[in-house]
Amino acid sequence: MEKKKVTLSVAIAVFNEEENLDSCLRSIALIADEIIVVDGGSTDKTVDLAKKFNAKIIRTTNPAIFHINKQKALDACNGNWILQLDADEVVPESLKNEILKIIENSSGEYNGYYIPRRNYFWGHAMKKGGLYPDYVIRLIKNKKAHFPCKSVHEQIAVEGIVGYLEFPLDHFSYRTTKDYWKKADSYTTLTAMEMKKSNVLPTFATWFRCVIVKPIHTFVSIYIRHKGFMDGWYGFVFAYWSALHFPIAYKKYRKL
Questions:
Q1: Is the N-terminal amide bond of 168 cis, ω within 30° of 0?
Q2: Lowest CB count within 10 Å: 68, 95, 208, 244, which one?
Q3: What percent of the chain is modeled with pLDDT above 70?
């Protein structure tokens, strides 16, 4: 029996994602020729869920820079094209059709594509505040892109020309307050570690910058400059919580 050609691989790195993974995998099950899941040592039902979708599972550790595991997922893919996803993302029908069309009609000009991401906060699809359209590189040609693995918020680096898709990817990152602060705890810890690695001096100037200047700049940028106020109460809360990133990170840095 001839082995099926792998055209599209879906690559996902996970850690304790039982609440999200089923929706994610269900959304791409019919278009993926293979699913690669790199698991960072989950203690919940994440791996069992992945097995239901016949995913190839690679077990490893859970590094602070999670892009290390995302790169492992890319390295394991056999498809000509790779769709890289996070477990809390869902691919709507319109985007699935667009991806298939791109793959089928690809002329070889583009080695990757930005996808507009629609971020949800407490179930609300954010329209402004820099959260939509939140362009991320997710569809790439195999062996033509990689994660630098230097920063938690970095994009995939692509060799060659990168295009743009029209239809959005749904991102359910902050379903609850607990979801937000769980991720914020990881991000602020990484910032604190970066400050220590850079030998930042705990002076008054550093305190003033982290506790006063950066929070105000962050809030104004999200709520005013990027029109977060148009999302009403959701926009205000998101801008305010985002502004607390550096004060929390500075407090953790001082403890280090």
A1: no
A2: 208
A3: 96
* b/e map 19-51, b = 16+ CB within 10 Å: bbbbebbebbeebbbbbbbbbbebeeebbebbe
Best CA proximity match to 40, nearest among 18, 19, 63, 23: 63
Q: What is the pLDDT of residues 5-47, one digit of tens each?
A: 669 999 999 999 999 999 999 999 999 999 999 999 999 999 9
Buried b (16+ CB within 10 A) or exposed e, 210-245: beeebbeebbebbbeebebeebeebbbbbbebbbeb
Residues of the chain with pLDDT > 90, as a percent, come to 85
End-to-end CA distance of the chain: 59
Residue 194 token pair: 């970066």
Full-prediction pTM beyond 0.85?
yes
Contact between 55 and 13 under an 8 Å Cβ cutoff? The reply is no
Contact 35, 87 (CB under 8 A): no
Q: Give the chain's domains with CATH numbers.
A: 8-174 (3.90.550.10), 177-255 (no CATH)
Exposure on the CB side of residue 51, measured as CA atoms within 13 A: 5
Region 95-114: mean pLDDT is: 89
